Amino acid sequence: MNPRLSVIIPNLNSLTIDRTLAAVRAQEFELAEVEVLVVGLDEPGLVGVNGLIRLISTGTAAPPAVARNIGAREAQGELLVFTDADCMPHRHWLRTLVQRYQDPDVKIVGGGVAFPGQKYWRLADNISTFHPYLHTAPAGTRDQLPSLNLSLRHSVWDEVGSFDERYPLPAGEDADWTTRARLAGNTLHFEPQAVVTHCPARTTFKSLWCHAVRFGQYSVQVDERYWAVLTRPFVLRHWLLPLITAPLVAAWVTGRAFSRRHLWRYARALPAVYLAKLGWCWGASQRLRGQVAWYTPAPESRVVGRP
Hints:
Residues 296-307 have low confidence and may be disordered. By secondary structure, this protein is α/β, with parallel strands linked by helices. It has 2 domains: 5-202, Spore Coat Polysaccharide Biosynthesis Protein SpsA, Chain A, CATH 3.90.550.10; 206-288, no CATH class. The chain is built from 10 helices and 9 strands. The longest helix has 19 residues, at 270-288. Helix 4 (120-130) runs parallel beside helix 7 (205-217), helix 4 packs across helix 10 (270-288) and helix 7 packs across helix 10 (270-288).
């Protein structure tokens, strides 16, 4: 018998949440053992509540870390499965994740990310952010896992604790949680065949740049809490260094990403990915200089557009 699952989806008035939920309902998996918790706001009214799906309203806009924590506290499942309201899980998603838990030593499994390739800036954003986790990447272990496709035993959640709610926007809270889980002795398994297609609303250069800067600002590599336990690259030892070395660092990281053979068909996105990595360096420099406060969210649209 399959373990009971709790699928947790933070939602801030997403215009694609109906497609996300349709993909969950279409899973080739016994849904009688599944509960779906959508946490946040649904002002467009696209969340169809039924015996499978439950909407937990936060009343006001809540960061994804807060929404995920609320969902985890309400969850009844032996396994917690996180995805996002701009993701469409493939039909074998839940079944593939659950198969990994047949091994009692497996406690955390992240899945692969696919993406539609037709919109240039969205393509570049996905490659820049998720190239280590693409569904074409090899299975294995990772130092971090993204929360758009993350599963774990409920017992691990109780052990590691919740997402850090000081992260005001979607960037860094999953890297922080999975890093804490790894430092607590857990192995982060990556299973690329458990796939979600990611369709974010970032379809302009400005949105790509802001997202990349935010990832630099909230990277665990520039978080002073981890300096004693994680190796900090030399270029992150002083706030000036990420700026001075940005062209070389961005070129090295971009080249490393595109050295994966399966990414060469998206070579047209290489310049935009390079720009995104420059943005990451800029954000990291801001954080190291002390210009980024935990509680200073940047203005951002409350409604996520349909791709």
